[in-house]
Write a structure and sequence with these properties.
six-stranded antiparallel sheet; about 160 residues; single chain; endopeptidase fold (from Nostoc punctiforme); 8 strands; membrane; hydrolase
Length: about 160
């Protein structure tokens, strides 16, 4: 399987995200250095290019994209870092960290069903960007009860 490892159609997978325009961050939470700030801004600009792009399992274009293709393409465009294509492959790379120490640019992984996985990019302030099965490319809150109950891993990568 590719993408978000889901045998279920997008129409049958709820996104219990509580993100609304009023909660949208104006900037990503920087780590402190000028490089971190510029990468945060670049990541947010990348998100804005893709915002609202519909979800499509196995998709990797503006016509439709799945969660792992979104993270893979964002990492290549913003950080010049190559990630594997699927969620199951991405979760095996990078350094495992705790959610409490997550910073912008870390990948956060969720188990959304017995054989389904999901991935997004943490952007600080308990928010992550991802390709949602119901909303397309969007920003959601990690502390939303749906997502917080499903966090299974957070990974950090050596980024430029």
């Amino acid at each position: 399987m590719t993408g978000c490892e889901s045998p279920t159609s997008a129409e049958n997978r709820p996104d219990h995200s509580s993100y609304h325009e009023t909660n949208r961050p104006t900037t990503l939470a920087p780590s402190g250095s000028d490089l971190d700030t510029s990468k945060s801004l670049a990541l947010f600009a990348y998100f804005e290019e893709w915002e609202g792009t519909p979800y499509r399992y196995g998709g990797a274009s503006k016509r439709g994209i799945d969660c792992s293709a979104f993270t893979q393409q964002a990492f290549l465009a913003v950080y010049e870092h190559s990630l594997p294509r699927t969620t199951r492959q991405q979760i095996k790379t990078g350094d495992k960290i705790s959610l409490a120490t997550a910073d912008h640019g870390d990948l956060i992984f969720f188990k959304t069903g017995s054989t389904r996985y999901h991935v997004g990019i943490y952007i600080g302030e308990k928010q992550f960007m991802h390709a949602s099965s119901s909303k397309g490319v969007t920003i959601s809150r990690v502390d939303n009860p749906y997502w917080s109950a499903r966090v299974i891993d957070v990974r950090r990568y050596p980024l430029q």
